[in-house]
Chorismate synthase (Allopontixanthobacter confluentis), 1420 residues
Amino acid sequence: MSVNTFGRVLRFTTWGESHGPALGAVLDGCPPGIALTEAMIQPFMDARAPGQSKFTTQRREPDAVKILSGVFEGRTTGTPVSLMIENVDQRSKDYSEVAKAYRPGHADYAYDAKYGLRDYRGGGRSSARETAARVAAGAVARLILPGVKITAYVSQIGRDEIDRSAMDFSQIGQNPFFCPDAAAATRWEALVDGARKAGSSLGAVVECVAENVPAGWGAPVYGKLDADLAGAMMGINAVKGVEIGAGFGAAMLSGEENADPMRAGADGPQFEANNAGGIAGGISTGQPVIVRVAFKPTSSILSAVDTIGRDGENTQISTKGRHDPCVGIRGTPVVEAMMALVLADHMMLHRAQCG
Amino acid sequence: MSVNTFGRVLRFTTWGESHGPALGAVLDGCPPGIALTEAMIQPFMDARAPGQSKFTTQRREPDAVKILSGVFEGRTTGTPVSLMIENVDQRSKDYSEVAKAYRPGHADYAYDAKYGLRDYRGGGRSSARETAARVAAGAVARLILPGVKITAYVSQIGRDEIDRSAMDFSQIGQNPFFCPDAAAATRWEALVDGARKAGSSLGAVVECVAENVPAGWGAPVYGKLDADLAGAMMGINAVKGVEIGAGFGAAMLSGEENADPMRAGADGPQFEANNAGGIAGGISTGQPVIVRVAFKPTSSILSAVDTIGRDGENTQISTKGRHDPCVGIRGTPVVEAMMALVLADHMMLHRAQCG
Amino acid sequence: MSVNTFGRVLRFTTWGESHGPALGAVLDGCPPGIALTEAMIQPFMDARAPGQSKFTTQRREPDAVKILSGVFEGRTTGTPVSLMIENVDQRSKDYSEVAKAYRPGHADYAYDAKYGLRDYRGGGRSSARETAARVAAGAVARLILPGVKITAYVSQIGRDEIDRSAMDFSQIGQNPFFCPDAAAATRWEALVDGARKAGSSLGAVVECVAENVPAGWGAPVYGKLDADLAGAMMGINAVKGVEIGAGFGAAMLSGEENADPMRAGADGPQFEANNAGGIAGGISTGQPVIVRVAFKPTSSILSAVDTIGRDGENTQISTKGRHDPCVGIRGTPVVEAMMALVLADHMMLHRAQCG
Amino acid sequence: MSVNTFGRVLRFTTWGESHGPALGAVLDGCPPGIALTEAMIQPFMDARAPGQSKFTTQRREPDAVKILSGVFEGRTTGTPVSLMIENVDQRSKDYSEVAKAYRPGHADYAYDAKYGLRDYRGGGRSSARETAARVAAGAVARLILPGVKITAYVSQIGRDEIDRSAMDFSQIGQNPFFCPDAAAATRWEALVDGARKAGSSLGAVVECVAENVPAGWGAPVYGKLDADLAGAMMGINAVKGVEIGAGFGAAMLSGEENADPMRAGADGPQFEANNAGGIAGGISTGQPVIVRVAFKPTSSILSAVDTIGRDGENTQISTKGRHDPCVGIRGTPVVEAMMALVLADHMMLHRAQCG
């Protein structure tokens, strides 16, 4: 029930605010005996870290992960793995404006309505900075899933989609957008830079593919693999939509068009299509698991927007300072992390019930 | 962790198979003192029940709910409310074909891969018949939410969308499609009947609006109201996509376009748009909560589809018998039920923490 | 969080009241492929059933279990196993006295204080009748634990203890007290009959031994095997104390006396004592797991006791009707059931984490 | 399901090992707006801290708590409260003996059997040092329970009990044993010092009373207040027995003797006895909640004990170094902390369901 905890058998709890001294994750239920060092986590942190290019926020955080427990002589012991990331660049700025008025589209008003008070510095707990802890936990989850290959990429920024015939996963690490289409990446430089300079922001779509997931993971009926993935992805900051496989497109297909015919193969069934996104009845089928995630444009824009103050009076607010012009970009490693965490959880849950 | 249990504080557990003697839900955590009779649940059961029109499956089930516990002298006692629905029309048919071969798009293969065996009669536990139990539980959840008004409707069948300027909620109960646009409902008669006669099937989109939800419900960061809704909706049979508010459309907007400006109002803030779908930072804002859900066309089609048998050999299968040509239609009351269950759960969770 | 649900990976939810139409358990997470019929559950129900001798309540309930879901062609499918027991002998009596005044020692006052209302017929949900559902679930849990042998017995009634040098497990089924000491069983006939005739009641101690539990089950630090057993046992109606191994006696020992020395054995370590009761650090050691449980005398006595009414005024109440003179006796199969449920749960939890 | 997490609505997760860099607790679900500073937690840490007298282990740890999240401008925000305690005095000693052989009565063998490896330095995660994190969390829980007064004390060391007629709670803080009987405290100095000098150890009984708990907390049937307390207490290191109210003594009483008669009082019912320990049917009655907890003598003794090595061969081991001669003493603040955590959890759970 713990709302800052995610997972069923492999569970992690995150804590921390944007401008507190640190944030972290406690990963519980991790199998023993897995080789784990801070260096094995760090590359995933670096992928998500701010300040890596001019297309992301200029806050500079090393996001160095410390392992505080659960590892002995380089291996997990089966006890909780506590991961901590110290905040370094909490720029001392004047938050009086944000303290007094609500930024539309942010969590400001909702937090005040719920809790009666809020940590307004950098968004507090509602900041996407919290996702650093998820990425750290996700890096460990990957180690629990040897053989499973998880790849996320940006397929669309604003209205500009990639050319799927030009997709090349080897391109993803070659540009600052996690873009598998080199030509699109080039176009996006101008697009995102334009938004940044204008103090505006852009939405994006991130896709994630998990290969080599065996058939049989997922737990009907309220722990369905797709349901857990949907909850995991919708819980990422700024996400407004989630699709599995053909998604909303499936609503426009006929049953014949949507079918994924099966043929006998050497290593189990071969599927002739994957509209299902690798999941049927909430259980993996052995096909690649495919998720699409819609990120809204961040609400942090320079234009003044009508709002109200804590005093209930009309006012306007514009968000200055260091922000991502397109939060979907840095959301990509977070999508990968959540995919890894959900899959590792279900691998273990399956093992509990089915041996 | 119980995978046939849903919810955080208000929890329900469902059980039962398509062709077993009965199915049911145990709703736990219900506040005491709420007036509850079987007659108060039945209308919601009837809305979902099969055999109501020629546009849904012809299986005839009265879906009469029995309250077996948790109610005394017409009021809930705070103990588990056990709801049972007996199966009546489990037509004795020959399941040998389904027993031997996997229907592509169904859970057949995945269940066998997971469990090593399956109840193949009518899909067993993977049948949408299980959603009757959710609707029963949802009917009770509505009673926990006095004042909240929940309305779901079909906004699209196949490629045919409603005209939003013609939307009229009073129409929803006037046609067999839960359609708020009378003209669209007329068009859909031919559309769905055509699919039915052809032994084909159609996808659909269902939208759900919850009005009068106060600001402050939802639990960051892994019990966000939108994340829980996404998981709840994606867990409904045949669902492949979920959007909150502007959803995937938000990915194409600029920050300026996506903003929901606020103005001072007599009873709290007034919002000038609702791209957020009533949720910010995972917490309700007081605006209507809006969810869109994509249903795939059912895989039960008359056309023969390539598949494999349990023996691993190539074969073909076509699904005869009684099936919904468009499962999204009868999914509408299920979407409403899940909305009610998630909201009631979060109302109580909010009360636990914030008094 | 569901308070009528027990367990971590293998979970069961019970529902029902003493005088409702039925009660039941939904067992979720059960491994697939286990042979299960109603006849395999019934003997455990019969052991707990009322009306078996003059030493227990004269309410006559067949306690016939119906399996409503989760089993197909004689084997579990991995979906929820719904078990229902219909109430048959809800004698129509006058409950007006219990409705108006609180029976001291019963849950009457506490339920009213919590919920504002209560089902006073036979104690409603607080009746020990609910334990029938646990015994049904426990019977299934035993099937998940092939090889583990669970034996509970009454070791003390009132102040009369068994002679441990005369213990013989084969005697347990030979007398109406689950007593392993034939001489004590003979003495208890007069003791319990005397209490019954006097309208009084007696406390008891039940011990439970689980043999062949492998080393390694249990989950530090808040899912310790002993902690889960303590919670499980203390949750049985009328239980006021739980000990593991030497229990309170260990508080009087020196470290030297309390040590369980180990010696090398052919099949793993041999322990030269078992003060630990088979659990160290919350994890099983491979020794027999030993629990002792104290049952209070039931509060249902014929003597008039001072109490207050719902109106807050002083009055007196005496409990007539059909009651157990010593609830610990029929608690014995419940202790066994909870032991089986906790062990099966931990077997599966261990498998989830450690493979 | 997270086994290093405790609680239902108010949940805390602990992490850390005896000889790691730090340990901590993440307390989730804390109500917002509660005044909280590190200085408000520290006195409870100091009460449990080692090295306070010659009667406890000589390891010297300041046990200074840092609040890393969840507090803003001196008040809780409703987000997770992360509490960290750095380990300071991890004496660099030679652990080769413990690495190679199992200390009987410790978790050494069980951890190896479960996980295949273990952090043997100071017992790793199985060390009672973990309870520092519980005490920190418990200090926050107390603040959620204004008005409730929680007092634990040692009532027995070895075979030497306090004189209940001489009990005076004001004495508890006046001696190093948390003893409410000054004369007993004087006797215990010699008793405990003798055990310490002999390299032996002593068991103890700790009692805990919670006053001003309102009627109505507790959640039948698997979240009973007494069941949750039993699980909480049995999960404390070295605990082997738990009693509520009259406990095992109740097994020897008749129903008449065990009754707690009620009389009308100005502020609700007055009870004329408290054999129930303040809980009936799993729900608080408004009387003081009373728990008794048995601590075994620590297994860390100087005498050589027969054991086996990791290699399976016979050997002997004696535990040198810094250990508590009577772990029950420092267990007292831990018992108080767990009482506070269980009560605060149930206060919030009650509020969720019953408003």
Notes: Chain C has a mean pLDDT of 95. The longest helix of chain C spans residues 327-354. The interface with chain B takes residues 1-5, 7-9, 11, 13-17, 20-24, 26, 28-29, 32-33, 66, 68-70, 72, 75, 77-82, 114-119, 124-125 of chain C (CB under 8 Å). Helices of chain C lie at 38-48, 96-100, 108-115, 131-143, 182-197, 225-234, 255-258, 327-354.
